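Protein modeling request. Please complete all fields; requests missing the sequence field cannot be processed.
Requester role: graduate student
Desired output: 3D structure, C-alpha cell encoding
Chains: 1
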Amino acid sequence: MELKSVTASVYFSSDVANPDTYTKFYSDLQMYNIGMGQPDPGFLMRSFLSWEIASKENKWQGRNITRWRNDAYDRAYRAAEGELNPVKRAALFIAMNDMVVEDRVVIPVVHRPGVAAMSHKLKATLSGWDNAFWNLKDWYREA
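Delivered output (143 residues):
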C-alpha cells in the first residue's frame, strides 16, 4: 500500500494535466469529505450519476469522480427529479443512498468528534449532522 498526501491546493485544483487532482481518482481509496450545502439532496446525489462521470472527454469536470455507474440509480434520480410528493421523493433518495453505500462507492463518516459546552441552564438540542448552532432560534434559558 502506498499512502500519499496531496496538498489541498493541488488536490482540488482544476489543472487537467495534474494526475493528483480529486477528479482523476487514480487510486483504490481516497479520503476527503463533502457535505450538503442545502437541505435538498438533489445536488449532492448528482455525484453518482453516470452522465456526470469525470473523464478526459469532459476535461475532468464531471461530478462523479468515482466513475461508478448504476442504471437503477440513474433511473431513481430521474424519477426523483419529477416527483412532487415529498414522501415518495425522500424514499427515492434514501434508496439511492442505500445503493451508493451498499456498493461501497463511499464509506460514510456519520460524525466527526466535536466539543461543545454550555451553561446547565441553557436548553439546546445539539446535532451530529450539523453545526452546534443549527437551531439557535429554539434555544432558551431556564429561569
